[in-house]
Amino acid sequence: AEDAFEKNQVSKEKDKLDKEGINSASLKENRLSICKLALENINKNPSISQYEEYMRKYSLAEQYTKEAIIKRDSVAFHMSEQSNTEEAFQGFLNKYPGSALKDAAIAKRDKLASDKAIGGNSIESYETFLKKYPESNLVGSIEMKRDSSAFSLAERVNNEESYRDFIAKYPNSK
């Protein structure tokens, strides 16, 4: 009897809330509105930490969480651009490997690393790049520069052994 009484009371309370427009659907709608407003508030003065806190607090609002991830990644990428170093972009890639900005970060990192190798203008600087970034789109151009430097060295020495060494080390040179 006590159970039936409690169920009846709960049903009456539910009916009363329904009459006032408070139900599952309205609660869900309000939750989404709160999530949206919280994200809009962060967007006014964005920071990585605020987006990460948002994702922890409002993880139930998936559509807004996805937007927060995109915006957080954008802020982090912009910070890497401001630093404009190979290390900054590598740090971005390490921290946000699934980012939509991954390819852009790889391209910028590789360009900076390539510029560093070219600036070093030595076989060693080119080899360093090739070992660090064997999958880079810039491998072909760095290999050509390395091979050219190695061939120039062989020409300066100008003996049979130096040319044989070059061919042995760089058999695919063009």
Characterise this structure.
- This protein is mostly helical and 174 residues long.
- The protein has 9 helices and no strands.
- 80% of the residues lie in helices and 0% in strands.
- The longest helix has 22 residues.
- The relative contact order is 0.05.
- The model has no long low-confidence stretch (mean pLDDT 90).
List keywords for this structure.
rod-shaped
Low-confidence runs of at least 5 consecutive residues: none
- Characterize the biggest β-sheet: none
Fraction of residues in helices? Answer: over 70%
Protein structure class: mainly alpha
Order of helices and strands: HHHHHHHHH
Number of helices: 9
Strand content: under 5%
* Terminal-residue CA separation: 92 Å
Shape: rod-shaped
Q: How big is the Rg?
A: 30 Å
- Look at the structure and give the mean pLDDT: 90
Annotation, overall tally of beta strands:
0
Produce a short descriptive summary.
Helix content is 80%, strand content 0%. By secondary structure, it is mainly α.
Topology of helices and strands:
Layout lengths: L1 H18 L4 H21 L3 H10 L4 H22 L2 H10 L6 H19 L2 H10 L6 H19 L2 H10 L5
Helix pairs in contact: 3-4, 4-5, 5-6, 6-7, 7-8, 8-9
